[in-house]
Write the structure tokens for this entry.
Amino acid sequence: SRADVEELMKRLGTRNDELGRLASRLAARPFGELTSTLSDDATRWATKDQKRVEVVMSGREVLVPARLAERLGGVLAHLVRNAVAHGIENPEDRQAAGKPGDGVVSLTARHRGAFVVVEVADDGRGIDADRLRHRAVAQGFVTAEAAAAMSHKDALELIFRPGFSTAAEVTTTAGRGVGMDIVRTNVGRLNGEVEVWTEPGMGTRFSLRLPLTVL
């Protein structure tokens, strides 16, 4: 009968939905797997710059779609390297500021609706907005007048300008011409957004908001 056919179609539709969800789950990777090598990488980068760092992870079990994960790994590596190079101070400076000698870089992941939110934070020196303004003028990105008129938020946005660098000198991990514009560009290609929070002397946090569906 027509009713039987409709019931069968309904059941098939439900089964297809379940199979689709299962396929999506199988195609996903745990956040912990995606970041498994970053702790060792951060330790190696810090050692070369005569620093000490501990990497703390939260949300290891959060599933990230495979197609998103394969593009996100490089972004996270860049952010961790940036935290070690620009954020974490050397042990002497940290102790002079009343901090433990070992810096901390944290990586967290969580689902928020149809998005995954990934954050990379450090407890380092933070970003000085005035220093960004001065560097932008010195590097010819803006005039002194324009820099003076910038809000705190606009000044922070300078770090995403192609070619902009806060490194006073070339070290193992900083000052080699690869900037934060790469992070914003790659996140933008994933239809995601990047936000930055910072407080001088306390640290910096980059928050990535990425859609779970990536074409």
About this structure: The longest helix spans residues 2-26. DSSP finds nine helices and seven strands in the chain. The first strand starts at residue 28 and ends at 30.
